[in-house]
Amino acid sequence: MKRLFMVPMVLCALMLGVTTAAAGPPEQASGDWTYVPDIAGLTFRTAGNTTFIQGTEVSTFTGTFEGTSEDEFVVVCHQKGPESFMNSVKITIDFTGEVDGRVGDMIMKATGKQDSTTCDPSGAIWSGKWVILGGTGELANLHGNGTWTGPSFDLDYSGKAHFN
């Protein structure tokens, strides 16, 4: 009777071990992220000393993420003083391409900020975070997150990514 009870336990342990091993540890992800906003399509809205800039952009990723994306963003420009602004951004990234030899689509979210002397978000150095929300095709089981930084239009990203 003990042997009959042990067989299912051993099988469960083996299956759990295979699942854990298949996921693998997160690996370093890094590369370049360049983007070109659709300047003609920008919309502006002001409320008090805060300006909202909404638009789209086309991005190119190289490095761990190899491909292109169509992004939607909102920049919030808040005037803190006569020549002091805090600019923040929220971006939804619709990526198509390749990660670690696997092809598909993924959705990422990125947030960032910059201190600036103007409300022009193209100046100064930006920094922020990114996270993979989900994917399709061979990128359906890709997970990851990290940081990004750089001057407008030419950013560096780094972090961790893995398939499960």
What does this structure look like?
With 164 residues, the protein is mainly beta. The chain has a single domain, classed as Beta Barrel (AOC barrel-like), CATH 2.40.350. Helix content is 13%, strand content 68%. The protein has an eight-stranded antiparallel barrel. The chain is elongated. The chain starts with a helix and ends with a strand.
Q: Would you state the CATH class?
A: Mainly Beta
Mean pLDDT: 86
Write the CATH architecture name: Beta Barrel
Q: Indicate the percent of residues in helices.
A: 10-25%
Physical arrangement of strands within the biggest beta sheet: 1-3-4-5-6-7-8-9
End-to-end distance? 37 Å
Keywords:
elongated, AOC barrel-like, about 15% helix, mainly beta, about 160 residues, single chain, eight-stranded antiparallel β-barrel
Q: Gist?
A:
It contains 1 helix and 9 strands, in the order αβββββββββ.
SSE blueprint:
Blueprint: H1 2-23, E1 27-37, E2 43-47, E3 50-63, E4 65-81, E5 84-99, E6 102-116, E7 125-137, E8 142-151, E9 154-163
Antiparallel strand pairs: 1-3, 1-9, 2-3, 3-4, 4-5, 5-6, 6-7, 7-8, 8-9
